[in-house]
Structures are given as C-alpha cells and as structure tokens.
Amino acid sequence: MNGWVVLLWSFVAALVLIIGGIFGSLVVMGRITLFPEAVPTAAPAPEQTGVVDTAYSVMILNATAEEGLDEQFREQLITAGWVPETVYASDSSSQDFATTTVFYVAEEDELAAIGLADLLGGAEVRQSDAYADLNTTDGKQLTVVIGTDSASTAPAESEETPAS
Fold first, then answer.
1. Are 131 and 59 in contact (CB under 8 A)?
2. Is 155 part of any domain?
3. Which of 1, 60, 74, 99 is at 20 to 30 A from 128, Cα to Cα?
4. What's the CA gap between 80 and 16, in Å, rounded?
C-alpha cells in the first residue's frame, strides 16, 4: 500500500508541475497578463445640442408624393413659436427625396439647424448653399426638405437634392 501512495503523490506532483509550466509559459509569451494596465478611455465627444431659434425664417419643401406634409410641418413650427409670416411651405419639384433634412448655409447657423431638426423629430442636418437663392428675406433662413421617411406611404428612395 505504501507504493501506491508514493505513485499517487508522484502523479499529483507531475500534474502540478505540468500545469505550472504551461501557465508560466503563457505568462512569459504574453498570452496571459497577470496585472493588466488600465486602458485609458477616450472621453466621449460632447454631442452638439441645438438651439430652437425662432428668429430664423424657414422654407419647407415637400419632396414626397404625399399632399399637405409641408403645411403640417408649417403648423408644427408655428405652434412651436415661429411667426406665421416667417414660415414658408411649398411643394418641391422632386417627390423622391429619401430623408427629411434641414439645410443651413453658414457655420453659425448649425446649432439653429440642429435645434430645428430635433423639433421636427430628428431630421438630418446638412450644410449646403443649394437653397440660398430661395431666401427672399434679408434675415437668416433654414430650409427643411421633407423626405419620404416622413411620408405615410413612402415611394422608392433617392438621395438627390430636390429643386424647389
């Protein structure tokens, strides 16, 4: 019986040495890190929050096949505090603009465009002078192009910039 105890202890010792050797090899090779260093996390960039500025005039273009969306958006802005004389609504010559987008011309208009987009339910915001010629006022103007994502029956989508 004494021989079996020695054999068992030899087997346990061999097993401990083999497992210890494998673990030590993995540590030396860098596969296992015993004391990991704290990974510096980048601070998230602050998300720009818009400012609802009713001093801007707003041109709303309905670029969908659904009638009356431009007037619905106009009423929503008037309810939010815009003066009715500064909110213009019209149909666009295109009826397949994909995503409702607020266009602004100058960099300083971006926060107002973001605020308007948030007010309209999360529309996209883009800087473009494509609609600068539509500004018939001497003040600043934002242009909202209603896309098929806002229509109840959405036709095939397109990413073209519609003309008024």
1. yes
2. no
3. 74
4. 74
Verify that 77 and 137 share a domain, yes or no.
yes
CATH code of the domain in which 90 resides: 3.30.70.2390
Domain count, the chain: 2
Cβ atoms 63, 100 nearer than 8 A = no
**Is 164 inside any structural domain?**
no
Q: Model's pTM, two decimal places?
A: 0.63
Asked, for residue 79, whether it belongs to a domain, the answer is yes
CA count, 13 A, side-chain hemisphere, 86: 18
Q: What tens-digit pLDDT sequence spans the chain (164 residues)? A: 688 888 899 999 999 999 999 999 998 888 888 888 877 777 776 666 778 888 888 989 998 888 888 899 999 999 989 899 988 898 888 887 888 999 998 889 899 999 998 888 888 999 988 877 776 666 788 989 988 888 774 444 444 455 54
Q: List the structure tokens of 29.
A: 């090779």
Q: For the purposes of burial, counting CB atoms within 10 Å of the CB of 29, is it exposed (0-12), middle (13-18) or buried (19 or more)?
A: exposed
